[in-house]
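Quick one - inputs below.
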Amino acid sequence: MNLDEVIKHISDFVNHYKNELYNLTQNESKALELAGTIAVCEHYKYLGYSIEIVNPDKAKNVFCVKTSTRGFPWNFSHIKILKENINYEIHTNLSVKSCHDDGVYCVDIGIIKEDSILKDEKKWKCVENSNLLSFGEVKKLVIYPMLLAQFIGIVHEIRPEYLAMEIKPEGIFEPVLISLGNFSGNSTTIVKAYEKRKIKLFIAQDFDIRLANYRGKNVQTPFYGNDF
Amino acid sequence: MNKSKLHSITSNLPYALEERVNGYVDSIIISMDSIFESAGIKFNEELANKIILIAGIKKLFDIINAAYWTLDNTATVLERNGTSSIRIGATSYSKGSKYYSDLFIMQDELKQILIDANIYDYVDYQSYSDIVKSLSVEP
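Output:
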């Protein structure tokens, strides 16, 4: 391996594709939410489910991704996950009612019971809390302690049972924080302690590397365990 | 240990990518002692600097590769279900879109650079202790 040659070739590559690399950074957040959603689907396939894509009536062949709080969920695509008689739906940027009050939160990826969205523009506000099984948050950030604390706060507001749980419900993926960044500071110390504290959350750091490992068939799911 | 060789690559990256590559490399530097320990090899600065460079290249490749794979796999999954088009807002992310083509060309070209330089296997490894073991016997 001639390191100087490698460095020169990669530096030339970076200079040549400067604009394209910049576009990648601009589009990555939206694509990341899409990737997180598809990765969650792949994880459910790993758990034994089959999947079915459902596109909006107005664009039957187009997968329309909801990337903000605005808009009605039925105007965007969602994914059904099916196993025997258990059917769930995965939606992006889904408004969900708090577990404690009438507050409404928007989760990046929401896993809900089938048909729990009422298609009524006048009445639609959010999914009832009891219909939300689990959810995912997607961040283009390093995993620093306060990001973990913020995620715990979201879980506390909408699915608090995962913060004090002996055994995870079978066939349901626990709330997941998907991040492109690595653990920083003492984040690993905090996450390592979750098990002892009976906190059932999945922290998926370095998500691009997870996808690459899954793509390369080194692992069975993008959400393989953390080896601290 | 130092990142000086890696700097000549990262200094020309868009800031957001430079930060991510450096952040990842910093996390590998923190773990360097345990990487050598689990490889069963005595720490050696020259080898550690090679690991730093490989980690940086790995992160850059994985960022591009994952961005491409994200769209490609998403499009493939959707195609199997009768959907050939992906749209986020007004932008198309479908196979054949400019964004998709740019990612394909970049990941393909960078992969070829790494293969030609005999470095691709290291970038593709999941375990740094395996990389240390392999590099330690390289002439």
